[in-house]
Structures
1.
Amino acid sequence: MTKIYNMLENIASNLVKLKREFFQSYAGTAHIQEAIPVSWSETFPIENFYFDSLHKFARNNPIYYDSFDQEIFGIRCIVYEGDVNKYWLNSIQHNASHAPFSPTWIFSAFVLSMMASKLGFSDIADIGSGDGRIAYCAKVLGCNSFSIEIDNSLVELQNEIIKKTQIDFKPYCSDAILFDYSKLNLTQPSFFIGGLAQMGGNMLASGVLEKNRHQFSNSGFVFAGTVSPKYASDPTSNAGWGTIIAQNNLNIVNRLILPSAWTAKEEDDTHYIFTQIQNSNPN
């Protein structure tokens, strides 16, 4: 398994380099933009079927309104341009909303889902899922995937994507803290927490952890973190999540650094921290 982990870490590192190279020349004005390689390469040794699935998600996602081919680092990519302002505003109107919608890159979502799968988690629950890209990628990879999103317009968007792609990642419109996870029949779940700790993700994570840590003793939690100086740091570090990790007796099992919409034009990319409840042992 070490070889697979190293491969995914290399892919993540190369994706960060590709992002930085892309933005050195990007002159567009789109609100969000991201590049997805077209096919397998030594830099990104992912089967073409999976790349096709990522492009299918982008082509059938209404937040993207334009695309174009571009060679980056000698790798043919398609760049997708979009706008999530409407959905961002909708997502913060709910009293129980803890983290506004701002997506990770689609390829990043795939790498994250694959890492969780390789760590032994068969169920992926995308909490605060936005347009459902992590749950979609997990489903493509053969996991049991679920999407929990409080904003009904985003859930409608997910259902539109499901209808067009025929990839059903099972979205639920609900407050993730109040949601009854027992009805999902989870066995070895990994909960992806949407949002930085400093942007409301800490409240979302604490609520989901309190509800599920004893119900699913073999569960994992994946946190999106940042070391950017513009966000308050955590006294125990870990990209803003150190205190919650310590308070809940979570064991860090892996880390990845990957591009997201909010780090697209920044030097510091998003730190994703894979944890599991102490004494659990996914195979």
2.
Amino acid sequence: MTSNDDGAILAASGIHKRFDALVVLDGVDFAMRADEAIGVVGPNGAGKTTFLSVLVGAHQPSSGRVRFRGDDVTRLPAAERCRLGLARTHQVPRAFGGMTVFENIFVAAANGGGFSRGEAYDRCIDAISLCSMMSVANRRAETLGLLDRKRLELARALATNPVVLLLDEIGGGLSDGEAGELVETIGELRRRRIAIVWIEHIVHILLQVAERLICMDAGKVIADGSPTAVMSDRAVIDAYFGEGAA
């Protein structure tokens, strides 16, 4: 898809982000359709997580514009974007310690999603069921293993009722079998017509979901297209393995 954001559910144009003298994003353009699943790949330090943070409002861009569902949300804080339907997960799960799985997800639905108590309860039960967490719903979050912490991170985002869900290395640290379980859940999100942007280093699980890949390097998008085309692109190979790699 081109950088033209006409008809896009989520779009960014000319995104730059600097932290003091460090340029992290350097003119990123992006647009996605509703119900699209996009994978984002690239070497460490490419700017991928910072880009997601700009999209959801955790970071303000130094320049550029973000549009969501047709509206300019560039200056809206993350909490307001979440209530509009834009949610994310984090590389390191951020559950509240001292609270159960159920309580964590309920707080996300009520505060992040802005739902009434009854609606939040329904959203919570749906997210727990979808993420296969009924058996641990009354466990305190800090007692969970890594797979269940990842599931909880996903369930908390889902409880806000997202239109677009941004996943940041949700497969990181998991075995292939565990990551496969998450892929099954994410497949159900696709059937629910939730649009997905997924950063992942485990490319073979990403390719089970993503219909389109974007590769970033040094704060720029260097390739955007079908998974086959992107993974065979000379610039992508050079970014991962160095110039001149076979």
3.
Amino acid sequence: MESVIKNQELYSVAEIALVYRTAVKPSLRPKVTSSRIAYEVLLAGWDEERIEFVEQFKVLLLNTANRVLGIYELSTGGVAATVADPRLVFSAALKANASGIILAHNHPSGNLNPSEADKGLTLKIAGGGKLLDIQVLDHLIVTPEGYYSFRDEGLI
């Protein structure tokens, strides 16, 4: 026979709150209409002391009007790689109530060509976005001197 535990402490659970706060009025948020504008917004928010030092992965979160809700710094890695967990990409997008996202990472070497791992990750995240109705609009590889757009090159 099963014993019944009557200790209410065993049933205490954490409360989860989903909140998005911003001090920026919607009309003042940048509107992303091209990969060039996305690059400029991302570059303005990138730590210039790290962009040529370590690889970082960021997510540009957009509302339905393609206005920037924010930039989420997902990870910082080493000289040649960083980890981008798709679950964390979408947890940020869901928390911000984003309708679209633009993935971005830098190549400290200055090489703008995507690796096979970059291509595979992009397709994996884009597939997850379809399930969640969050459009992956682009993936940019960023350097101080330029960028590579998966969308512009037909890879997404």
4.
Amino acid sequence: MKLRKIGKQNKKGITPIIAVILLMMMTVAAAGAAFFWFVRIQSELQGGSDSHANQLSETINSKMEVLVSDLQGSSLKVYLKNVGGTDIPVKTGSTSPTTTFLMQESSGKVICQTYLDSSHASCTSGCGDAIDVGETQLVAMTLASDCSLSSYANTTKFAYTLDFSGTSSTGGEFEK
């Protein structure tokens, strides 16, 4: 009868088992790290899209409507109504955010582009406040300097756009 060495056989049989266990542990660790990395990236992306969705919703719900535009001498009076779902600021001054005023000839040539309450479009009424939802407000401006219409003939048509700090915009037409 031949004698076998028990100790040597056990070492050869255990080494592949330890190798398999180590490989499985490394696979589980790599999968766990990948899972947590994916969850973190997903939450960052979702947080960014939630913020974008809220901003987009606010912009969509902002709507300003021009009821009447009237030029009397150098004074332009615009009656505005907030028909959206959020209050719209009428901010003055050159520091952003501000309400900008753009005026064009009927041909599309830009006459002036400025902010409200500048030397070109001095705001005399309705500026600096927010127009609440459903509210109608008069915004009156005295047009001077580059925005002056004194060199244009009567019955000349003009178009204008008011941009309320990127929250909403509206426009209309009037005749001199």
